[in-house]
Amino acid sequence: MSLQGPFNDICILRLSAIGDVCHAVSTVQAIQRHYPNAKITWVVGKIEAMLLAGLPGVELVVFDKKQGKAAYLSLKEHFKGRKFDVLLHMQVALRANLAARVIPAKVKVGFDWNRAKEGHFLFTNHRIAAEKEAHVLEGFRGFAKAIGVPHYEPSWQMPVTQEDRDFAEEILSPLGDKVLVVSPAASKAERNWLPERYAEIADYAVQQGFSVVITGGPTELEVTLAKQIENAMKSTALNLVGKTNLKQLLCVLENASLVIAPDTGPAHMAVTMGTPVIGLYAHSNPARTGPYLYQDYVVEVYHQNLKKQTGKTATQLPWGTRVKGKDLMQQISVDSVKEMFDRVVNEKAL
C-alpha cells in the first residue's frame, strides 16, 4: 500500500555509486512526472554530483564522505529549519544511514526487511514492498511506488550541455559511424577482463569496420589497463582514459554504436543514453546489477561459479550473493564475446 500525500517536498538519499545513481535518475524523473509541482532535493556523493549537476528540477546537496564527521554536521546545518514530507532512503550503507538520521522528514521510507542491511531499518519508519529477484533499478522503482507513482518503464533525461555534446562530436566524428567504446576497468581489478582479450575483441571490431575508443578515469589502474590494451592490439584505438569528465564521457557513450564493459559505472551511463552494452560479469549476478535495458547481451560466468562454490543456484540463495575469486573473469572467453558482438551488431543493425 502506498503512502498518502501530499508530497510537495521530497528528499532523495542516494550517495553512490555512479551506476546506482544512474538507476536512481529514472526513479526521480518518474516521480517528477507524477508530481510535477513537488520540490525535489537529492543528497548525493561528491563525484556523483558531477554527473548529475544540472539535473532538471532537482536541488543537489553534496555529501562529501571524505570530510568524515563534518559531512554529517554540514548536512544537518544545511537542512536546519526544513521538514520534508518524505525522505526516500535508497541506500543501505552505514554512512547513508547516518546521513538519513540528520535529514528532517515526517516519513522516512527505506528498503524492505530482506534488503535492509547495516541497521537500515533503524533509520526509517516505512518500508517499500518486498520483491523477489529484483534488479537494483527495480528496487528503486519501489520507492516511487511507495509514494503513489504508478508503474513506469525507466527513461532518462540526463543533464548534458551542448558544449559536452560538441566535445564528443568533435572527437568521434572523424572515426566514422561505427564506434565501439571499450570501458575496461571496474572499481576492483579482479572484476576486469584480461587486457589481451580486450585487445583481441577490439581488433575483431576493427575488422568488422568499427573504430575503437577506450575510456576511463585518471586512476593508475585505468591508465595502465588502457595502455596494456593498446600495446596488445594489432590495430589502433583512440585512448580517452583520463581525458574526459563525466558529462563528456556520457556524451561519448551516447555517440557510440556499442559499449563493452565489466561491472562498472559507464555501462549504466551508456544505458541512460540508449547505447547497447555488452556486459562482462563473473562476481555479481547480472540479473541484479547488469546493464538494465541490455541484460540479454551480458556474457557471464557468474551462475556456474555460484553453483560451483555453493552447490546452489541464484534462486536458492539470498538475492545478490557474490562469488569470490581473483581469476574468475578469465573464464570469459574471447569467442563468447565475439559471438555476442556479432549478435548485437545483427540485432541492432549496427
Automatic annotation (TrEMBL):
The record's InterPro entries line, in alphabetical order, gives: Glyco_trans_9, LPS_LOS_Heptosyltrfase
Cross-referenced Pfam families, in alphabetical order? Glyco_transf_9
Which GO molecular function terms does the record list? glycosyltransferase activity
Keywords from UniProt, A to Z, are: Glycosyltransferase, Transferase
Top-rank taxon, per record? Bacteria
EC number assigned by the record: 2.4.-.-
The protein's name is Glycosyltransferase family 9 protein
